[in-house]
Protein 1
Amino acid sequence: MISEFNMDRFIEIFIEETREILESIEKLLLTIEQNDSIEIEEVHDLFRYIHTLKGNSLSIGFQFFSKLAHELESFLESMRHDEIKYGSDVSKLLINGYDLLNEILELEIEKTIDEKTFKSKTDNIIDELTNYGSNDGIVKEVESEETPYVNTEEERFGFFNDDNSTKKTNTKQETETQKSVETSQKAHSIASSSIRVNLGKIDKLMNDIGELVIAMSMLDQFTQSVEDSSIKNGFNERIGYLKHILRDLQDSVMSTRMVPMEQVYSKFPKLVRDIAKDLNKEIIFKTAGNDVEIDKAMIEGLSDPLIHIIRNACDHGIEKPSSRMASGKNKEGTISMDATQANEQIMITIKDDGKGIDEERIVSKAIEAGLTTQERVQMLSTNEKLGFIFEPGLSTASDVTDISGRGVGMDVVRSNINRLGGTIDIDSEAKKGTTFRLMLPLTLAIVEVLNVVVGDARFFLPIASIIESLQPESSMIQSIGNNNNEVLILREEAIPIIRLYEIFNIASNITELEKGMLIIVRYGTSKVAIFFDMFLTQQQVVIKSIDKNFKQIDGFSGASIKGDGSIGLILDVAAIVQMHRQLKEL
Amino acid sequence: MTNDFMIFTVASQYYGVNLQDIREIITYTHFTKIPDSRPWVVGMIETRGQPMPIIDLRIRFETKIEPTYNDKTVIVATKLANSRLLGLVVDSVEDIKSFKNEEILSSSEMDESLHSTLLSGYIQKDDYSILILNHKEFSVLNDIEHIVKPQIESNQL
């Protein structure tokens, strides 16, 4: 069950996130203004930022802020669809909107905003946003915004109804400085016994330790080549000691990056409550695994996807009390969020007991959007059909609401999760509910791998995904279908076999399954058996992204530098399964 | 206006890359092969803590030279857009030379067979010519990108 959450703390987190996003928006807007043109990518980025702001602010009850964000979002939506063309007045309008967002945010933080204040501040801009292009009197209206609207709350600040414009700016600046002082004081009192360290510094530390690990394995390799066995043993003993310390050091640095899942969960109870209220639904929100620790760097990227999923669950998943009772369910719906840690991976499960996802509807939408064809659909499994909800532009909600349903959600969810090196899959049963499963690496920096051999190539296979390995006997292998699909029969379970040398087109002398090794790995909720020539040692490697100098390479999640200075490629099981399916379909 | 070029040879032909775009010259270390890549993408090496792809120009320009890799193999690390790095295997590095802008002729006047898309221009002297690699826009970079199979397909499954 949920413990009482500290509102102040998660408002603090929200504010920090929001300021970061606003910063990115500002940067983008300034570039746009400077270039006096807008790229479609920039429109998408802006849209996503604003969409995130809207969602986040709604989750902690900043309704005015989210209202304004909603208006900006609609405007950007029109730009996305090319209904509004770029002109210099557009960038001006967006910047005005951005400034106002900042202003409203400050008022929300101080809790000094009400309907009247909000209206007086934003009416003009909202008008402009909604009627853009159909009205030429816009500029005038913006200027007339200065007409003072006096209300007691504003008088306290005393700058809006000041007629002297220079004085006005000064006062405004003063007030702003004062505000920021207040805010920082607030922040100070909340963070008491800990210090804030830039994540970049910890990353640097992490990287240096990574280099140390490499140097260590160089020394190790060298030692193994020493001929004199007494010297060799002496070295080995001391290296063992060094390795031990190194492992501890690595763990402690790692732990500075880790925070409990509770921090991730904190914003959801309120979010669920508010949405439930809005929609006249009754929803119970449960969490488990609050103490499971997660890489701080991951939280940021995780926040949006989870909000999207939760909102969808509230909006489209859980039914109204009346229809729940009609179908014999409790009138309260339940959404639960669970985190567990196993094998250097975190699994987050989000489960609702709502009406489930209408598979046929997803499929017809997918066909409508040109993502697939009627013939192809016949060959897809339920899981694959449901997977279409992760495609861009596919929303099954009939109306655009404040809560969800513009079709931006799920594709953003998937790309965000992928960016974190994780995977997401969905399971749904009509009338029973929907489950989302996110598998994430524990950290973004280091991975434990097994050295595997295929032909003359060597790769790293992440240990986390491995279940077991074996050398099969011919009786354990069966062929099914006419596409030469091989499966391994293991304890009455049929596991698809993937021959890695086929996927990567590597010349290998070992093509008989009985002569090589099958490594059974987890893929989402299912298993596959990957065929290698053999495997060697296990080691820890520091992940380096390939696309720093490269495009992503299919089948690999990253690279690492080996003890001898050469590059090792880290296999990406999910991508390999995809490549395998493609290969078998052809 | 003059520009400095690093001049190197591939199959007895001179090639040039703007000196500003040269990161460093590296001697051969073991290449890690990239599975299923174009033949001229010979692998990756580590440079300054990051993986860098390597293209063998001897293969890219379809020279008859049998590519061998040993201590004498020279890799020119060049800078691409977005501060990406790309290594080029060449026969030998010759010299640094300055040329005036007007000495550099447009690649459109070049013979089709000279892989004109891979080149941005050339310099014609009495006794030799230098082909300037079109390496910023790099069609050679596209060559790398093509090794990645279309992603869209896999998403549709």
Protein 2
Amino acid sequence: MVVEDDEAIRETLRVALEMEGYVVFCAEDGREALETLPRIPRPCLILLDLMMPVMNGWELAEALAADEALATIPVVVVTAFADRAAKVKKARGLLKKPVQLDVLLGTVRQHCGSP
Amino acid sequence: MASLTPIGLEILERAPGVLVVAASCDGEVLFANHAFEELPPAGDAEGSPSHDGGVPQPTKDVLVAACRRVASSGAAEAFDVGRLGPAGPLSWYQCCVTPLRLDGRAAAAVCRDVTAFKQEEARLRRSESLLIDAQGIAHLGTWEWNPSEPAVVWSAEVYRIFGVTPDEFTPSYEGYLQRLHPEDRERVGTVMTRAAAEHRSFSHDERILRPDGSIRYLHSWGHPVLDASGRLVRMIGVCQDITDRQLAQIALREALAEANATATANARLYAEAKKALGMRDDFLSIASHELRTPLTPLSLQLQLLRRRIREGLRATDKGAATQDLLKLIETSDRQLARLSRLVDDLLDVSRIRTGRLTLMPGDVDLSELVREILDNFGPELTRAGCSAERQIQPHVVGQWDRVRIEQMVVNLLTNAMKYGAGKPIRVTVSADSGAATFQVQDFGIGIAKEDQPRIFDCFERAASVRHFGGLGLGLYIARQIAEHHGGTIGVDSEPGAGATFRVTLPLRPGGRRG
């Protein structure tokens, strides 16, 4: 699942992963992510942006960690703010924007295996 | 020689401290008492230096000579004889020489030993001189005041303190009050009359005016002197000139206040500088985020394109794959445009802050321009979920810089779409009496009253940084453009009820407002 408010980044990530063969769901902020998650097959990875309106990345990470069912889904932060990403609850990794394609695919493969 | 009765003789011999000698006008000693016999016959070679200018020494020949003189002249004499030492009088006598009524002419000298008195007198004089010196050194004067008499007694130092001489001024209670500083007169007068009436001591500061107009600061002490029945005899006291000390204190206080003010000003400047630095750091961190945002998809898109081209188009559905790639390129284009605008905004801010923003006015049809911009923004408006309502009065034409006006319109529109996403946007263009008005109204999150003045400042954002991206430059630039055209920009907003931004521009350049 890709949680990112910027439409261009969100769409590009989706296209890049779908071209590799993965199934991608999107949300444009934390709240939409929380609403969507129960309705979709459990994602193998959540790619999480930090700066979003309504509910930002830090807040979403807190909410996920507090939910028994969702807490076990790996979360990788995708952000330009490398220093503040350290404070994201239970994040398994960090991708710095602008994202390198091979690093992105490698991370996804690591958590989700081959498509 | 006349005879003396035994009693008479005893008296003359036994009287303490008395020298007696009687002699004829020939110098024949007729009688002398024992004390006289003890005197040295004549003065010693040093003479007797005296600060009175030559007092004869107590010697036999001086006294006998005096008797001879008086015996001859028949006129009595009175004089002092004495010997002075370095520390004061060694011996001193008061002498009276009287003619005697006997057969033949004779006189008798009777001298009284007043050495002790003279020594005491010298001691007192020395003591008084020390006291006067001390008063002068300490600028301390003593005074006496009997409240039932107008006259007051002052020591020399008090005259000096008051800047007058005993010839020009006779001290009195009234005179003293007159010389007080007008602001202190009432207070001091009350204290002193009460002290005299209630037999109390007092101690206070006061200011006096010298005849030349200068002010002296004094400290005065007063103390009542009572007689055995408790009645007030007089008030005695001391006053000291503390002007130097006071002036030094005042100067010190002023210097401290100035130092304080400087320190406060410096602290404030430091706080402002720190705040400015903090804002700049915030801005830099937001700016880097904002710039990386369009760069991210651009970079990914190019990497995707390269990957696809290298692998060749392996997709089963070549058409769909090509569509995907073409859409990618389109998105990349938009990101580039976005990046471009951001960089331009930053350059503009730098130009504005160094005073280099120059306008190139020309004929601009604002109605046409706004319509065109709204059309170009069609896809973005749809994506933001904002329907645009237009109320555009046709042919609103003015002398403006087209590029800058466009920039201002786009900034306001972008804000409306960002903060009022999913709600309609109302755009109005109108003109009346020499000015054009452009208005953008959104129905989004709105702006609190306390934030409204700030949002037009550089790098200011009323929305929380964590929720909304953006550099905070759009409104600042918009205001600069409006004001450089001689116009104004303002906002009307309530939190939760959206915001209306209104720009007025004079149709003709009239120079900057204000």
